[in-house]
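User: Fold this, then the next.

Assistant: Folding the first:
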Amino acid sequence: MGFLRERMGKILAFFIGFALLAFIVSEVVRSGGSFFRDDSNELAVVNGEKVPYDKFNEKLEQASAQFKQQGQSISPQITSYLQENTWNQVLSQLLLTKEIEKLGLVVGDDEMNVMIGDNNPDPQIVRQFSDPQTGQFDRSRYDQFKAYIKSGKAGPEQVKAWGDFVIDLIEAKKATKYMSLVTNGLYANSLDATDDYEAKNKLVKFKYTMLDYASIPDAKVTLTDADYSAYYDAHKNEFKNPQDTRNFEYVSFNAAPSKEDSTAAKLQAEKLAADFKASTNDSLFVQINAETKAPLTFQRKGSISPKLDTTMFNAAKGFVYGPYLENGSYKVAKLIDAKTTFDSVKTKHILIDLASVGGSDEKAKAKADSIKKLIDGGKPFADLAKTFSADKGSAEKGGDIPSFDANGNMGGGQGSLVPEYYNAAFKAAKGSVIVAKSQFGYHIIKVEDQKGSVKLVKVGIVDKPLTASSKTQTIAYSNAQKFLASLTPDNFEAEARKEGLKPRTAEDVTAVASGLPGLDNAREIVRWAYKADVGDISDKVYQVGDQYIVARLTAIKPKGILPLEAVKKQIEPAVRVAVKAKQLQAKFESAMGGSIEQVAQKVGGKVTPVENVVFANPIIPGLSAEYKVIGSVFGSAVNKVSKPIDGTQGVYVFVVDGFTNPPVLSNAIKQKEQVIQAMLQRSQGMLIEALKDNATVKDNRAKFF
């Protein structure tokens, strides 16, 4: 007891500390983490520098937004492309920045003033502030924008966006300087120019006989471990893996809609058709019943589905068409209304943008209204456009805008107008002056002319996607579960054959891959593959679209030079060709002696003459590119039968009849410029790849995507 009393404080401290530690460890284990887990915001580490996920994601969202602005939908494949493209940009910028810092490259104040100044602004600024109609730099618009930013009236988002834009300009300028330092060291001497000239212009005439690899059946070729090793050792550098990859095979169980599902969906659509025909509030009916919500608008011929185009333009109001199957949905269409309007409208306009009045919407509208009064009072529209319009491209023409149709298309590839503009113009009377607001500001519009006539229809469409029923999905899932339960690491292919299934292979799958052959969005399977060991069966049945997937990991390929076992299957065809080449070379060797005609006769071949082949285009007419053979031809003596050369298509023996040399190079300077230009075109990409190869990169993207 005395012992315990003397040491009670230490004992209590120990047990309290142990309890706290156990509590913390349990929380960490419960949340799936560890004491040494990576930073939750650490997307990657490049040469010791962290790449934050939130910063990367900001750039990715910008790239996605730009893609959407082009009217493109973001599919899983596009998502994967944008992620990879953004990653390459971020990685390249990081690596370049490190090199730039080492060299101490900067952009000085005077240089920056020139880049964003008025006299000679950076090309990126020129692109941002170009007139959309003429493509010319709009200096006054740029001046107004800079004044707006400096005035303090711009919002914080606008100020930040401009600041980020200027920073990007500076970084781009530094990168240009760095690239210039590298490329300025590239040169070509007179020998380079002469070699390039002769490679493109020196002609050779020769004869050859060839034994095709196809002359030896694959079944008669036995490959040994020594054959594989010899080929692997000779081509080891070709098997450098730039990043970790996985190979796996998988089978899919189809849960696509059955005939019963299609019949049931069509019956539902037929009931909808009857209800749609009886509807008195078509807009409400579409909003309630359609899976794809779309506003009801007037459309011209050619702008709706081909199945509806002819029918609806010849039907009476209230006509119902369908159900019909289109893009995986049963659809019912109703002609809600039809009208005839002008084919095109000609207008002039004066644009009052918010920047010109300090960002105030009220002031912009008041200014537009006052200008309209001046026009109504007899002031020349053209003069006012030149004085007040923010659209300098049209202002120089007195506010003139090309004719446009009911959808705002100006024709002739001149672009289109915003809906607020063309809708207002089509509703107005000829000769009238109106004010309309758009995203660009307030437009004072004068309707100059209205030509032709065109029929427009308003069609409401109710769609019901054709989906698999729970019964169809259950059957497919049960079959997949049954298959998964029957598997061991060694019987995957046998069990698949037993079920009448053909396994598919996915090779060299990266950690951030989104799709697989035949599967658009397979991120869950890829994540599983990067947690599994070779031979492992998938831990569950994975659903990808209307398919249920069971997979087996077949290979893990680490970054770096891959071992022979990892590429053995991949190189098998090439090894077989190499073995055939040895056999055919031996056949030629036994026939050597005498002329090429005699050699060809002994091996059962024929002699084929060839002429006017150049080194820079090593194609044998009627065959294919044969780099090794043509290279040997240009290095051979005239009238000498060559030794057997293994090419791409077979083994060759040839004899050179003669060379035709081109005229002496008269302008070496021009030829040097061509050689240097070719080097410059490759230099930037090669430089970036060299920096990547030399970098230490810890890539955690698979944790986030």
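Now the next one, as you asked:
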Amino acid sequence: MATVATTSPSSTPLGTGHKRVIIASSVGTVFEWYDFYLYGSLAAIIAKQFFSGLNPTSAFIFALLAFAAGFAVRPFGAIIFGRLGDMIGRKYTFLITIVIMGLSTFLVGVLPTYESIGVAAPILLIALRLLQGLALGGEYGGAATYVAEHAPPGKRGFYTSFIQITATFGLFLSLIVILACRKMLGADFDTWGWRIPFVISALLLAISVYIRLQLNESPLFQQMKAEGRHSKAPLTESFARWDNGKVVLLALLGATAGQAVVWYCGQFYALFYLTQVLKIEAVTANLLIAGALLIATPFFVVFGGLSDRIGRKPIVMLGCLLAVLTYFPLFKALTHYGNPAIEAAAKSAPVVVVADPDKCAFQFDPIGKKTFTNACDIIKSALAKGGVPYTNEATPGTDAASVKVGSTTIPSFNGAGLEPAAFKAQSEAFTGQLKAALKTAGYPDKADPAQINQGMLLLILTILVIYVTMVYGPIAAWLVELFPTRIRYTSMSLPYHIGNGWFGGFLPTTAFAIVAATGDIYSGLWYPVIVAAMTFVIGTLFLRETKDVDISK
């Protein structure tokens, strides 16, 4: 096979030509991740703007589902754009993806709200989220493949780790813009100012397209196409042939699924946990997450470079194992240092829902038409709205339900068949008694800034993000090296985006739904812990190390 010329001498740690490739690929990807993360960071505001027809618990969960909808279609974007990337080239494919992403994000910023156009607003929002997801599904595989195919042997982990930084930088950039807008606009940010970060994406789109247009095609792809070796049917070769399909499946279950839940738990779920469970003010929570990202981000490159020496597999597997072993104590520590009043109240005056489990509905109404009127549902709806942790005490065979706050018992009521006015009056009376009992027991409406230990929170969040850097820093090089050049874009994109789009993207929604159903504020962690444990076992036993493979074949 002919030797492919690199853009700069590989004897230097990072040659000028290689820097240009990395910077051009990374800057465009930063802007795309910025676009995608805006929605996740503003989920609580978007819930009020586009899902105001639902009850508060359902509105927030449905806003998270709309966020997850973008992740749900990412594997389809991987298939569509991965096929194009393997047939026509890496460069032109991720030019298309960035245009789709930027335009979709801009349109979110000018979209009318539920109050203006009714149910059409959330429908259009979800449609734009789907377009964002399709675009992102084609972006990552292209950028990672493009950089890896420019990298000299023995440097692929280091080179591709700069692509891994882009996701964190994108989130960091979105947080900076959000915080700046909040600071300047104050209360107006929640009503109309939230649109500004989305509208700004038009400028970022123009910069990104200009940068991407300066790139040349991957040298490995150019040579392969000149020799007539590029794939004419990348989907068939990637997924319909067991020798490659088996590797795709193992890459999903033994690498990207665990990597995804560690990533999304350490960044997104941690942010939601601070704001929605611990009730820490949004600006403070965002600053803490931003600080942790700033401290931990260099470790993407540290672990990417380390993987060139000791291998991709041991670093990713260790990150998954640490998450499994420490997530519960770390999140309990977040509670202890973030809102100790919740912890103290839960110990001194635990809240217990006493009811027949069969009479308790799941507190989620995706279309806003269901009315929670039985005694158990009224209790759990009030507790979920207030973010109050509770346990359940089963009393089978009875329609009655009550809630115990320490030694105080408050009976609920059955609202079925009541006139709206009567239901409202009884509901307000019950809620008033419950709030009074919770206040007496020490349950806070929001975190007391004087009791927040910001230093310890920053340390814990930094540990969580360092786990992210361990699993994410080496993953691009590992995936690139698992598959042959002719079908690399397609083959690596699908397991990456199923892992990150489905296992990771649905993590906040799934975790909060589990918390809402059980009342245990830590129960949502079982989802990332179980998935990370699965990846650790499968990856350790069945996936091969790849750091020394020749990717030119």
